Amino acid sequence: MVYVFKTSVSAERQAERIIQKLSTLTPNSKCNFDLEDCDKILRVEGSEVTAEQIIAFLKSCNFECLELE
C-alpha cells in the first residue's frame, strides 16, 4: 500500500528525523519527503502501517498531515 500525505514539514532536518522515527515504528516501510512540492509531500509504502497511524504520529510531532487521494 502506498500512502501520500500533505504535511507542514518544511525543513530537511525535520523530514530526516520523521523518517528515522517512522522507520523505527514500521521497519518494513519505505518513507520519503518531497519538500520542494508546495504540499511538502510525505510518501509511505508499506503494509504494516495505516494512514491513521501516520497522521497521528505526525500530529504528535506537532505537524499537520492530511492524506491525499
From TrEMBL:
Top-level taxon of the source organism: Bacteria
Name used for this protein in its record: HMA domain-containing protein
